[in-house]
Predict the 3D structure of the following.
Amino acid sequence: MSLSAEEYEIIVLDLVLDHGSALAVADFASYRRPDARVIFVTNTSFFSDGSIFAHSSNACAYVQSETPPEDLAAMVEHYAAPR
């Protein structure tokens, strides 16, 4: 698995996966790469109340799938900046 072998600062993760659970991936990422942050992307209203931040300790953003790519890229750049 790539999370075991590679370093990541930011993970852009679709909340609705065809196989598996995005929350399980985020949880594994927090274990293997504790400094990596996750931007969740979705086309649903699930977690639109902000509760994703209570379920995923490494979540830093939650955006809709329709978010323009340049806006998502700006978020990645922002959250990947040294803390």
Q: What stands out?
A: The longest helix spans residues 69-80.
